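Supplementary material to the annual report.
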Amino acid sequence: MKHAEGFSKGLFRENPVAALLLGLCPAAAVTGRVIDALWMSAGFLAVLLLSSLCLSLLGALSPAAARDGGAGLSRGRWIGSLVITACLASCFDLLLRAFAPGASARLGIYAPLVAVNCIVLGRVELAAGGLSIGRSLRDAAGTGAGFAGALLLVSVVREALGAGTITLFPIGTFGGSLAVPLLAASPARAFVYATGGLLCLGYLAGASRLLSSERRRGESDRA
Amino acid sequence: MADVPVAGSLLVSPAPHIRGAGSSALMTWTVTLCLVPAAAWGVFLFGAPAAFVLLVAVGTALATELAVVLPFRGFTLGDGSAFLTGLIVGLLMPAGAPLHIPAAASAFGIVIVKQSFGGLGRNWMNPALAGVAFAHLSWGGALAKWVAPRGALPGTEALAPLEALRMVLAGHPAVRGSLLRVLADSGYPFSGIDGRVVGWINARLLAPLGGALPRGVFDLLVGNAAGRIGEVSVPLLLAGAAWLIARRIVRWQVPVSFVASFAVLAGVFGGLTEGRGWFAGGVFVQLFSGSLILCAFFAAPDPVTAPLSATGRYFYGAGLGVAAFFLRFYGSMDDGAPIAVILGNCFVPLIDRLVRSAGSGLGKAGAR
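Predicted assembly:
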């Protein structure tokens, strides 16, 4: 139960995009096409999981004296943590350039920028701050999945309304792109522009607030 | 708008707190009524397509308002606000627009711009103009196709005067002379009536004085030209606006400072962008073509999205004129007035904060 909660927290109650309003730049910038959002989410999840793993391992291995008494991270540990996440983000960027040049061109600066993404930085502090490996990984998985879910939702709405298509990857005979009936003929282009991104994110955050306020009301009714 | 009773006798209600001129519903329906002549002229000029666009825009606005609001706040169509929003959306569309565009623009304005923020009185941006801006962002190409006015020569391509001017000036920069003459020389299809009326005036009245009016003056003056449904007839718009200002439903500060600041800027600097020099902006063409008059008198002064104080309204109106000038002369749009108004709407809370009236009865100490 508790393990599941560590994961689902990042997915819903503390969803980084919808509830905490973190990582809005990539969430608004790369959600114009579903496939871009998928690439971004995959890279983000990988960087988050691997950096959490490395940093908690490092924390478990380093002597207790280096842990700074729990009052935040020492400067040296911060720099070390940043080097690790930056390395992983660069790996993501380079792999993307090598194996998916199209996606790399569309994600642009947002792929290497995962290194300084505020969600990742927050996790870094948590993971390097002495969290157990298991908890840190669950946490990272939940947050990464929450980020991916938010991006996927926003990108499906934006691409369907704004371009009349849903672009995935080609599998077998499937060409990789679905046309949405009715909308495909004359889509509302505004949704693929930044306007539509901010609009959709606003409604996502609003829905998240509405849900959490109703849940709180439900909890206070039970108590 | 919903008034919230607090502690018995006190009422807390959202701005604007305006006294006089009856209820807000009566004000809104009066504004709607004053737009009817201009709308009727548009339908007369462009025929059935214009009527369909207006019907779809108003119908969608009413239907979406009903669907979104009925479960929460009850029946609100009586306040006239949704009808007026739909009507302004329709009036700002070209007559031949594919019908899903006015429908989407109305729905966007009502659902996203107005009701998402809490309905009438809490919408900080003009819903109709925001819907139109959304439509331009989404279907800009389809909205740049015009319908020729009644009585135009068959086979001529319909083009709104401002857009035609833009093309002519881009092809021949630094051309001198009045903009109307430039337009006429480029072969713009002014109507036959215009030719007869202008010819008669020139021959009988102005020839002895040694002057001559260019072709097109009559067409633009009465609104016999291609354009959006509601913007073409400036005299009918001004007549409606005069009634509203006389009844103090529209406060004159916003439209007058809007039009004045735009006219001064356009007149003095408008020619510079095309290399025509100073004082060559063509104020007459700029005011009598395009949606500036419609936006200035019927959308910008909307009491919900305009500043509360008279001083604030001067600043707001002047700012709208400046924005419309830059959008029209330096932007990619042929018009720019609707965008200027929704930009100005964003600054209204700031203006209200900076320009506050003194608390009554407190003298100088009450001023903040």
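The first strand of chain B starts at residue 4 and ends at 6.
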